[in-house]
Amino acid sequence: MGNEVQFLGRELIVELEAKPTFITIYYSTSTDAAGLQWLSPQQTAGKKQPFLFTQSQAILARTWVPIQDSPGIRFTYEATIKVPAQLMAAMSAENPQEKNASGIYHFKMPKPIPAYLLALAVGDFQFKPLDKRTGVYAEQVTIDKAVYEFADLPQMVDAAEKLYGDYAWGRYDLIVLPPSFPFGGMENPMLTFATPTIIAGDRSLTTLVAHELAHSWSGNLVTNATWDDFWMNEGFTVYFELRIMEAIYGKRYCRHAKPTWIRRSEIYD
Ligand SMILES: [Zn+2]
């Protein structure tokens, strides 16, 4: 291990004698990892089970996995996650739709992603479909409200495809995180993480969903090589978000809209 560098962590130096095609790194992560957010039952909507979610953007993936953590470097991944049987796990990957008694879940992300899009959520949540390729994960007390709120999501994906070309990731699902999720949304591929505060009961705040969906093209397919140029990722996404909203709700909507990421106060979205 190299020396600790403030904010950046420590480099892991691997000396190679031959030229292997792969190396295996065995590690344990830390419960203190800044990218892991552990919620007590009281911090969830259901208040009975704990919840875990990750936030890797911008450079926090390295706090829970030893990884080349730069947006210019991409990888595919597979993971096996074991959780208590009453909980379920979901990742920025192909996801299960039902709990299983063993608590063991396998995940696969076959398309190359940058480290900031590596994501995991574990909690007492369930899945409901919106259409064939979209759906919602949420705690039991939230799931029906979420299904109502996000009813336009299938239409948004169709509208986005007409503007920018085919949706490349297979499924597009949303997970509604517990009330203490401190961000608006995070565009983790195949599974956007969303705040429950957008469940207004009248579908009035779903521009955030259009924004995170837009990242499936700008950001998740093509992104900035370094964080200095993050403005490209967000700039193109705000433009595309408004084009999706225009396609569904008309130009009148867009004249009155302020871009999502300006209206919201958080840094990460
Ligand atoms: Zn964004």
Commentary on this structure:
- The protein has helices at 61-64, 140-149, 153-164, 207-214, 230-249, 251-256, 260-263; strands spanning 36-39, 51-54, 74-82, 88-91, 104-114, 120-123, 125-129, 134-139, 172-176, 185-186, 191-194.
- It is an alpha+beta fold and 269 residues long.
- Helix 3 (153-164) packs across helix 4 (207-214).
- The relative contact order is 0.12.
- It is globular.
- Mean pLDDT is 93; it is low at 261-268.
- The protein has one domain (36-263): Zincin-like (2-Layer Sandwich), CATH 3.30.2010.
- Strands 7-8-9-11-10 form a five-stranded mixed β-sheet.
- The structure holds zinc ion (ZN).
Q: What is the topology?
A:
Blueprint: E1 36-39, E2 51-54, H1 61-64, E3 74-82, E4 88-91, E5 104-114, E6 120-123, E7 125-129, E8 134-139, H2 140-149, H3 153-164, E9 172-176, E10 185-186, E11 191-194, H4 207-214, H5 230-249, H6 251-256, H7 260-263
Parallel strand pairs: 8-9, 9-11
Antiparallel strand pairs: 1-2, 2-6, 3-5, 4-6, 7-8, 10-11
The site of zinc ion has 6 residues, from helix 5.
